[in-house]
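Page 47, continued from p. 46.
Same chain as before, 297 aa.
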Amino acid sequence: MSFSSDIKKELCNVHELPINEMAAMMYGMLYAGRLVNGKPVIQTENNDLIAAARSLAESVFPNERIEVTRLVNNGGSLYTFGVKSRRLTERFGDFSSVNTSVVSGNDADGGAFLRGVFVCCGSVTDPKKEYHLEMVLPESERIEPLKSFIGEHGIKIKSTLRNKNTILYAKTSEVIEDFLTYIGAGIHALEIMQVKIEKDIRNRANRCVNCDSANLDKTVAASEKSRRDIEYIIETAGLESLSAELRETALLRLENPESSLSELCGMLSEGKPISRSGLNHRLKKLSQIAEELKSER
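Result:
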C-alpha cells in the first residue's frame, strides 16, 4: 500500500467523529466530487472511501436514499456514490463556493471539510522520495474558493495549471505536515517529520565526510609537492645547504609523507615546540628554495 493510500485509510475511519464534523467531511467529499446530471457524486476505486461516504451519509442524512453503483473495468471497480435527497441542496447549497453555514470558522469543522476533500481528490508522495502534496478537483471553478479557504486557515498552498486542470499543491515538508495534522492525519505528519530528521542527519554526515575527504586530498597534494621540492633540493644543493631547522623539517616530511601538519609538529625534537603555522612556514620556505634553485638552472 502506498503512503498516500495509508493516509486515506486513516482518514476514512469516521465512526468516532462528532455529527457536525461528519457533516463537514461529507460536504468536503461532495465538494471534491463531480456533477452528474446536475447532482454531486463521488467517483472512486477506493473501497474505504465508499464505506466512509456511506457511513457519513447514513448519519448526516438518515432515512434518505443512498445510491452506490459499481462498474467493473479491467479487473478493477469504479464506484459512483450519491445521495438522492432534496435535503442535500438545502443542507449544503450549490457547491459554487465553500458554504460557511456548513463549515463554520472553527478548526474542527474546517479540518473535517478538508479531510473530505483530500480523501476524494488528494495525494501525498512518499516523503522518502520527495515532498509533494496535491489536490485535483474535477470541477475547476471550485479551486479558487477552496484555495482561499485553506489560506484563511493558515496553510500556504499554491496552485498551478497542468493539462488544462488547476492543481493545488505543496512542496515543502512544513506545509504538508501542517495540512495533514489539520485534517486529522497526525501520525503520517509525524512520519514525514521523522523522515526529514533522518535526511538532515544523513546529509550532515555526508557533508562532513565530503569535507574530510576534501581536506585529506589537500593534505596529500601539499605533502606530495613538499616531497618533490625537498628531493630536488637534495639532488641539486644537498641537505647541508639547509639550516638545521629546515633540514630537520625536510627529513621529517620525507619520512612521514602521509602525516598532517599537526602530527608532524608532535614529531619534532623535544624542546623545540612549533605551531602548525610555523611548520607550514618552514615547508613554504623549502618550496621557495626549490623554486630558486630551478630558476638558476
